[in-house]
Amino acid sequence: MGSNPRYDIGLGDPSRFSTTDKDVLGDIEEYGATYLIKSAGAETRILPPPTEVGQMMILCMHTDGGNVVVTAPNSTVYNQTGNNTATFGDEGDSMGLVAVENATHGLHWRVFFNDGVALTTV
Prior knowledge:
By secondary structure, this protein is mainly β. It has strands at 28-31, 34-38, 43-46, 56-63, 68-71, 85-88, 94-102, 106-115, 118-120.
């Protein structure tokens, strides 16, 4: 894959997110719009909110040291069902997200593909 930059916030260009978003995803590597999640044990993380409609990201479990639960930001949900948590349990679990906007949730992430990630409501 070559040499790619790694950012503390793990979500691409650091200028796209505020300093309060740093490290919310923990140990993560960024390759374009794909973010590789690494865990050393069971962990819970909060996804930073998107900054613009159409922004996309792919999250993939790279190193499975324990489940990683990723919560949607700001009381938003990932889908029409109302799921607000995504659990990555195995290496290769992956989920694609796109930023959309509506009157109920404002600007928020929606799942556009899911392979192995358990979506639940907490």
